[in-house]
Amino acid sequence: MDANHPANVAAQIARPRFSASADWIGLAAIFASAVVGYLLFPNNLALLTRVIGIVMLVLSVDLVTGFCGVATLGHAALFGAGAYAAGIAAAHFGITDPIAMIAAGAAGGAVAGLISGLVVLRGHGLGQLVLSIAIVNLFHEAANKVASWTGGSDGLTDIAPSPLFGVFAFDLWGRTAYVLGIALLVIVFFLLQRLSRSPFGMLCRGIRQDPIRVAAMGASVRKTLLKMYIISGMVAGVGGGLNAISTQVVGLDSLSFTLSAQALVMLVLGGTGSLYGAIIGTVVFMLFEDFVSAANPFHWLTIMGALLVGVVLFAPRGIFGTAAQLFDRRRRR
Amino acid sequence: MSAVFEVERLSKAFGGLAVTQAVSLAMAPGDRVALIGPNGAGKTTFVNLVTGHLKPDSGVVRLAGEQLNGMNPMQRVQRGLVRSFQVTRLFPEMTPREHLALAVLQRQGRTGRLFGTFWSMPEVLEEIEVLLRTLGLEAAADRKVAEIAYGQQRLLEIALALALRPKVLLLDEPAAGVPQSETPRIESALAGLPADLAVLMIEHDMDLVFRFAKRVIVLAAGTIIFDGAPGDVTKDARVREAYLGSYADDRSAA
Ligand SMILES: Nc1ncnc2c1ncn2[C@@H]1O[C@H](COP(=O)(O)OP(=O)(O)OP(=O)(O)O)[C@@H](O)[C@H]1O
Ligand SMILES: [Mg+2]
Fold first, then answer.
1. Where are chain B's structural domains?
2. Which residues form the ABC transporter domain (chain B) (predicted)?
3. Residue A28 lies inside a defined structural domain of this protein
4. How far is A8 from chain B (nearest CA, A)?
5. CATH superfamily of B5-253
6. In the prediction, which pLDDT does A125 show?
7. A9 to chain B: which residues are within 8 Å by CB?
8. How far is it, in rounded angstroms, from Cα B171 to Cα A17?
9. Average per-residue pLDDT in chain A?
10. Does some domain include residue A94?
């Protein structure tokens, strides 16, 4: 055999230690957490489904911020666009099939991602941040103005999704919505794992680390970032669509600066640049919010603030990033 | 042979300081040119002007007959004008192998792919392996760039430029910061370059310059003061003067 034949050279090169097996472990962990969540909180599935929707939003922020290094405080524009697209499809066009509604959400999110990207990527650094805030506020105002389509400040109602696959109705307990949410999360996560290892994913990480080098390799920074914005919009849009199906109402709060800022906080809490960080940050933030605000509605913000200060000061890479770092150090010893 | 790379009366001033003054040069395929000159002579600025990282005040740059003025750096790279950086510009969290994978995939127009990895592309892995071997980077191939020696980062800069298979290659002090023991690596990599590639190398190490170049251009205070055979450069009075620093006095007198 020819040792220099490409296929044989490839076989001689040791692949990275973590690869395919780690991906499957991650997916299994999500699935296991989903089952545990179902067993622990059978009466609170609506909350868990909302968490899944927001996880998609935070994953979407991670794609542009953690992977590409574009700071954003306006990403709810993408999430809300997805929610309204799914809601309007159902309420105004009679598209009540949940899968079709999710597809409408992804499409709405993608369009919002394209628009946001075109505007935000004009700026740099702080300018991007300001433009992203402007975008979410414009989206919010636009949704408020066209009340005949969106229900304005009363919210969009009359969303009645038909049974999933014509069989599983969306029950009062929220079981169907939860299972749909988990299935979507697993699919999205699986696809994003592939994406992050793909040539495109590598190029995006390159842009975060040195855009001038990327251009010096002949790659277009702007086109790449715009493409990532569209993908990010699809992910956020799926989350928005899921939220519309699960709550059967879409409010202006889904297009708010507050939600955008919270999403960024959740990402920082969990750890930027990692898909796991996005999930962990969201789950910790939202469950913490739920428990603490139930126990002490007046002080939950204080406690949340203290938690955040603690994370930023003592674990600047976020919960997942810090844990991964500790784990890595141990292995090397 | 006709020129693959032409620069005509390129000029640039920063504030009042003329850093590049009506610089003209032409290179044919296969040329091996060294661009030398004292610190601050404007060598890096010349490269930045030519590659589109800086905008010239006037002058024309042509690659294979096509005028490049107005194009951004990316478009110039896509047409075959590739540079290395004097101060390395690399991705600190990526490994040399990943860097080279990106460069090879970009050259092939495949960095837009959303699925698959270069680990499952045997021809890409093979090409990376050859580049790593050429520059002696095998041992560092899978360590993050932030963790490898600066000399190895310099070698990776060169490997990246080679991976793009340019028509014209501009190397900005490729040996600066590389330990003496490693410079043979650079030399053998340069010796192995395709015969029709035009190379312009900025370098302070005169041994390297004399072994590499068939032609030497000397830049001082933004002007070309010598363009000729390596054997003649040390005999030239103006060059000697420039290296003694008296060119600065000439300029203030003018
Ligand atoms: N962006 C800039 N703004 C203002 N002045 C600049 C700028 N870039 C370079 N200069 C000045 O232009 C002159 C030439 O700089 P340049 O970096 O091109 O020199 P060089 O020949 O590459 O020197 P070296 O051998 O030290 O690398 C220097 O006086 C430098 O201070
Ligand atoms: Mg220089």
1. 5-253
2. 5-246
3. yes
4. 8
5. P-loop containing nucleotide triphosphate hydrolases (3.40.50.300)
6. 84
7. 122, 125-126, 129
8. 35
9. 87
10. yes
**DSSP calls for A202-247:** HHHHHHHH-HHHHHHTT--HHHHHHHHHHHHHHHHHHHHHHHHHHH
Residue A17 has pLDDT above 60, yes or no: no
For chain A, list residues whose CB is within 8 angstroms of any CB belonging to chain B: 4, 6-7, 9-10, 13-16, 19, 194-195, 197-203, 205-206, 209-210, 212-213, 215-221, 224, 227, 231
The half-sphere exposure of B34 on its side-chain side, counting CA atoms within 13 A, is: 25
* Average of per-residue pLDDT across B4-23: 92
* Residue pairs between chains A and B whose CB atoms are closer than 8 Å: 109
Alpha-carbon span A323 to A320, nearest angstrom: 5
Q: Is B1 on the interface with A (CB under 8 A)?
A: no
Domain interval for residue A79: 17-254
Asked if residue A275 is part of any domain, the answer here is no
d(CA B191, ligand 2 centre) in Å: 23
Across A50-64, A170-184, A240-254, B178-192, the highest mean pLDDT is recorded for: A50-64
pLDDT at A11: 53
Nearest residue, CB atoms, B118 vs list A6, A7, A199: A199
Beta carbon of B44 within 6 Å of any ligand 1 atom = yes
B210-225 residue pLDDT tens = 999 999 999 998 999 8
- B101: pLDDT strictly greater than 50: yes
By Cβ distance, the residue of A10, A213, A221 closest to B89 is A213
pLDDT exceeds cutoff 60 at A240: yes
Q: With the C-alpha atoms ordered A207, A212, A216, A221, is the resulting torsion angle positive or negative?
A: positive
How far is residue A162 from each of residues A89, A91, A105, measured CA to CA in Å?
13, 12, 16
- Kindly state the tokens that stand for A194: 């592939």
Q: Where does the pLDDT of residue A95 fall: very low under 50, low under 70, confident under 90, or very high at 90 and above?
A: confident
Looking at the predicted complex, does its ipTM rise above 0.90?
no
Distance A207 CA to ligand 1 centre (A): 26
Q: Please give the helix or strand (H or E) that residue A83 lies within, else none.
A: helix A76-93
When divided into structural domains, chain A yields a total of: 1
In a domain, A263, yes or no: no
pLDDT at B194 over 90: no
